[in-house]
Amino acid sequence: MKTIRHIIATMAVTFSFFGNMSAQNVPTLALNNGAVMPQFGIGTYNQTNDQAYDGVKYALQHGYRHIDTAHAYGDEEGVGRAIKDSGIPREEIWVTSKLWMNDYGDGKTLEHIDEMLDRLGIEYLDLLYIHQPFGDLEACWKDMEKAVELGKVRTLGISNFDRDPALIDKFATEMKIKPAILQLESHPYRQALEVKEQCAKYNIVLEDWFPLGGQMSQGALFRDPVILEIAQAHDKTPAQIILRWHIQDGRSVIPGSKTPAHIDENIDIFDFELSAKEMQMLRSINKEDPFFKMPGQSVRRMSENNNVVPSFN
Ligand code: NAD
Fold this sequence. Notes:
Layout (H helix, E strand, L loop, with lengths): L1 H14 L12 E3 L5 E3 L3 E2 L5 H13 L4 E3 L7 H11 L7 E6 L8 H13 L4 E6 L6 H13 L3 E7 L5 H10 L6 E5 L7 H8 L4 E5 L15 H10 L3 H11 L3 E2 L6 H8 L8 H9 L11 H10 L8
The structure holds nicotinamide-adenine-dinucleotide (NAD).
Nicotinamide-adenine-dinucleotide binds next to helix 10.
């Protein structure tokens, strides 16, 4: 089984993405471990298994090749069914998931990775994150490194480590396999420029969650006058301008949606370009102000006291 997984993972690296474009002209990013990832994908936070199934299957059939899920979302099973039923070969799809705090631990993490693969019904993950920077991170990471050696995972990432930037330095310099990606809340109002610069030193790519502001923003970015002005100039929607900004700023972006109209709209951003002046205008609305306001202590308490994966189903 180990050898088969190795062969599949290597073939995926070699054959899945040609040049620097993938389906629907989606650009790709070359990661610090040699893997090539579609820069744009779909997020599945806060969806039931059936919603994730419908949304991801629709997305795959309409040009998406990158899917973001997590153990904590409780929808990996729906995502896995969608991959299987989409008719798209597995090696053409970039599949990401994340380990929740109760998955961390020496030996335990490897078992939880196997369970994750079972839930998704796939042989390997393209990208696996530590979801939150609390708990036994080193034991978890060492098991994640073993999973890479076993061909069960291709790329390792850290999520929300911008809460503790010293940890980014530690993981980038002390671990056998360094992180290739940091997933964090980022959008035009929270561009995370300091952390972006810190990650650039290690060739760590940023992948932005709440790229449109998330549900908590109640559409605040869509009403921003600068974004509206640029949208009008290009005959695009505010969401398309925001997503195009993420792309041109060199970040990976995974807008969440289960609505076919939004899924179509969000990927329709590769036929126009923002000018340097427009990129500058978007830089100027940065407030470094996240929409997710829960303090680190509360997230940590949630992690430590709650050994149960939050369910949205
Ligand atoms: P988002 O900014 O992508 O916004 C999603 C919301 O915007 C949904 O309510 C959706 O219906 C709506 N929407 C989508 N497309 C739209 C459009 N074109 N016009 C108007 N509204 C639109 O926020 P998100 O989904 O929470 O974040 C993206 C993904 O990032 C998630 O789905 C998840 O996969 C991931 N994520 C990771 C973390 C983490 O801790 N690592 C946290 C949150 C989310």
